[in-house]
Design goal:
228 residues; alpha/beta; 4-stranded antiparallel β-sheet; ATP hydrolysis activity; cell cycle
Length: 228
């Protein structure tokens, strides 16, 4: 599902954030990406949804090479990828239903399909009763549920989550992880960058450690620990 071949990323200020990365992530996998701050973890994640482009090398998502993808094709790529952010990125003037529906309106889904898909996904994340509420009326955990609903409403093949529990209390973080587990159980590939050691060590999945712009460890049923 995701392949990186000899990927390098050097920023204009000279910082090398990816230094010869090679990795393959299969369909339906759940992968944690961990590592020290400033180690290249965010760049690793951002290149997967073309927020950043590699300086050199190839990145394939479901057979599409992001390294050679024209900018005008990026929106079409993102229809196959759901992205969940730490700070939710909800539209404050739209209610819960409208925030999720917006992802389908931009690709011109029919009103009937929008209603069905939005209602189904709100039920999955437990927000059916709060569909008409606005982001400022929700808790942080509820806002993150809306963000997750929006990311999966178009049934993407891959969900990329960048510190999705970073702003949440421990109890809410576990609730959010249960939703990600449900999404993964439906066959969706999940790649999650996280600093949450307890979650990584309790809900065991493949762990990729990024440090110095390189993958320093990659193991199945791995643990959080890494050398700083």
């Amino acid at each position: 599902m995701i392949v990186m071949k000899d990927v390098y990323k050097k920023y204009p200020n000279g910082v090398v954030a990816a230094n010869g990365i090679n990795v393959e992530i299969g369909r339906g996998e759940f992968v944690y990406v961990v590592g020290p701050s400033g180690a290249g973890k965010s760049t690793f994640i951002k290149m997967m949804y073309r927020e950043e482009a590699p300086t050199k090398g190839d990145i394939f998502i479901n057979g599409i090479n992001l390294a050679t993808l024209r900018n005008k094709r990026v929106p079409y790529l993102r229809r196959q990828i759901g992205v969940v952010f730490q700070d939710f990125k909800l539209l404050p003037k739209l209610n819960v239903y409208e925030n999720v529906a917006f992802a389908l309106e931009v690709i011109e889904e029919s009103p009937k399909q929008i209603r069905k898909k939005v209602n189904d996904v709100l039920a999955l994340v437990g927000l059916t009763q709060k569909a008409r509420m606005f982001p400022n009326e929700l808790s942080g955990g509820e806002q993150q549920r809306v963000s997750i609903a929006r990311s999966i409403v178009n049934v993407p093949k891959v969900v990329i989550a960048d510190e999705p529990t970073g702003n949440l209390d421990p109890e809410t973080s576990w609730e959010i992880m249960k939703i990600f587990e449900q999404i993964n159980a439906r066959g969706t590939t999940i790649v999650m960058a996280t600093h949450n050691k307890e979650i990584v060590n309790t809900i065991r999945h493949r762990v990729i450690v990024v440090d110095g712009g390189m993958i320093t460890r990659d193991e199945y049923e791995g643990v959080y620990g890494y050398e700083s």
